[in-house]
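Reading group handout, session on sequence-to-structure problems. Before we discuss, look at one worked example. The prompt was deliberately terse, the way you'd type it at a terminal:

> structure Popeye domain-containing protein 2 isoform X2

The input record follows.
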Amino acid sequence: MSANSSAGGQLLWQGPVCTGWRQDLEGALYHLANCFLLLGFMGGSGVYGCFYLFGFLGTGYLCCMLWGWFHACGLDVVLWSFLTTAACALQLALLVYRLRGDTLPEEFHLLYKTLCLPLQVPLQTYKEIVHCCEERVLTLATDQTYAVEGETPINRLSLLLSGRVRVSQDGQFLHYIFPYQFMDSPEWESLQPSEEGVFQVTLTAETACSYISWPRKSLHLLLAKERYISRLFSALLGYDISEKLYALNDKLFAKFGLRFDIRLPSLYHVLGPAAPDTGTESEKDDEDVREPATSSPRATPTSVQQTPPCSPSPAATNPPAPPSRARMSRSDSGVLASRTPLQSYSQVMSRGQAPLAPIHTPEL
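And the output record:
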């Protein structure tokens, strides 16, 4: 036992001593192979790091195999170098296959660069979102409807990729939807996951459009499972809805020349066409407004004060025609509004500022 241990220690610490060193150096292939191996072992991590690593290692072992075949003339050197070269080549082929399998279509790649990359959304997270819509791109022909008011159920969420969609209600144009905007974000936010509903507007394609669509149930399951994706969709949908509200506000500004507060109730009645009896109702409102003003002591003429209480007033028997609201000056409207409960609203409107939402919205 002691003899074996002494022999092992002698081989470990002393080893065979070279009787003579070769005077000539190895060929260029040997040194080139070691250079490639040195560069290969300096590779990093990740997909591109693996490409770098296995690319240089495979090239280095290939040079070793050629050196063993032409200069060393050793079968063992050739075989081991061939096996390592083949292993590196197989790793490179596997990486290429995985990259080709993970490649997104052109539409989804452009969507990622436009919408998600500025928000620093990880690519793997984006692939989960795309997988939820089955990587399908749907199309709409010109004048084809995506949703019909009061008929189409709210069972999906869609994002426009190209083209332009017109949104209308009762035949009245509201606003446009442009690429990389959600087509039904207000409808999505208006319902809980367990609720059902139908569209309150009509969406019609003005040009040839392409869009992607997530089924409602599948997307709700994904949002419930992934908290980061849920927060991402909440931010994107909130921004999209605010853009639609500002589009409605700009339409009001172009129509009336005043900036309205987007929180005003009954905003659609301001946008919508005037009903046939709108003028009659406005005249009745003006009569109701002028009656208290006529009965006040300062505004009542002298002849009216001398009449008996039982006789009807001239203003009541033959009221003057109220001026049209479209032609009424801002000063007149301010005086008229000062006698009504909407004094603050009319004063703000006369200054051209955005009013706060009143309890009773005046007809515009």
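Points for discussion. First: Strands lie at 138-140, 145-147, 156-162, 165-169, 172-177, 202-205, 209-215. Second: The chain has a mean pLDDT of 74.
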